Amino acid sequence: KNEVEQSPQNLTAQEGEFITINCSYSVGISALHWLQQHPGGGIVSLFMLSSGKKKHGRLIATINIQEKHSSLHITASHPRDSAVYICAVRPTNSGGSNYKLTFGKGTLLTVNP
Amino acid sequence: NAGVTQTPKFQVLKTGQSMTLQCAQDMNHNSMYWYRQDPGMGLRLIYYSASEGTTDKGEVPNGYNVSRLNKREFSLRLESAAPSQTSVYFCASRGRPWGTYNSPLHFGNGTRLTVT
């Protein structure tokens, strides 16, 4: 069983819609990362958070440590937002020199014009 | 400032052939990582290097070797490629600013490897 579950697996939206991608995890963590991967492309780190909320442009990430849940929101979505969004967590028991991350399988977002 | 550079971008190998994937970062990061990405699965750690001169196994190290040549470069070698190693490989690096415990990963653009 994957320790990190993302929903939905696939999401199709119309340009301008408000998007929410969810990430649930089952272990205690010290940090949660949101990553973006465009088709055939590299992976870009969007957010790293351990509490509360962060905002960058049209992207907002929130985390509820007690509920072990994070959401990534995209306001006024645009076709260029089409990508795979990946959630990853660092478990608190992954000590030592290995910055061990557990990755979700990703959410494929398609935004149509 | 190129970030993390991986070469090659694409490679096709026959079973049993060997090759080395190259990775270099120009951000003066101590930690470097090799991941593989397979359909329907999350990224999985192959090997990592917490600092120059050290390397350690990750979740799926079998069939691979690594070399941390210097602080900038971390290479991944397949000594005898197998079809199960068909995957997309990502190199990543991470700095750790003084006083922080967590920091973001910086990824390369990936190497798409096919083993026939």
Please tell me about this protein's structure.
- The complex is a heterodimer of chains A (113) and B (116).
- With 113 residues, chain A is mainly beta.
- Chain A has no helices and 11 strands.
- In chain A, strand 4 and strand 5 form a beta hairpin.
- With 116 residues, chain B is mostly beta strands.
- Chain B is 0% helix and 47% strand.
- In chain B, the strands form 2 sheets. In chain B, strands 2, 4, 5, 6, 9, 10 and 11 form a 7-stranded mixed sheet that branches. A 4-stranded antiparallel sheet of chain B has the order 1-3-8-7, with no helix packed on it.
- In chain B, strand 7 and strand 8 form a beta hairpin.
- The termini of chain B are far apart.
- Chains A and B meet through strand 4, strand 5, strand 9 and strand 10 of A and strand 5, strand 9 and strand 10 of B.
Short recap of the structure:
The complex is a heterodimer of chains A (113) and B (116). Chain A is mainly β.
Q: How would you spell out the order of helices and strands of chain A?
A: EEEEEEEEEEE
Share in helix of chain A: under 10%
Distance between the ends of chain A: 37 Å
State the total count of DSSP E strands of chain B. 11
Descriptive terms for the model:
heterodimer, A: 113 residues, mainly beta, 6-stranded mixed beta sheet, 5-stranded antiparallel beta sheet, B: 116 residues, 7-stranded mixed beta sheet, 4-stranded antiparallel beta sheet, 0% helix, globular
Secondary structure layout plus pairing:
The complex is a heterodimer of chains A (113) and B (116).
Chain A lengths: L3 E4 L2 E5 L4 E7 L3 E9 L5 E7 L2 E5 L2 E6 L4 E6 L8 E9 L10 E2 L3 E6 L1
Parallel strand pairs in A: 2-11
Antiparallel strand pairs in A: 1-3, 3-8, 4-5, 4-9, 6-7, 7-8, 9-10, 9-11
Chain B lengths: L3 E4 L2 E4 L5 E7 L5 E7 L6 E6 L6 E2 L6 E5 L5 E5 L8 E8 L11 E2 L3 E5 L1
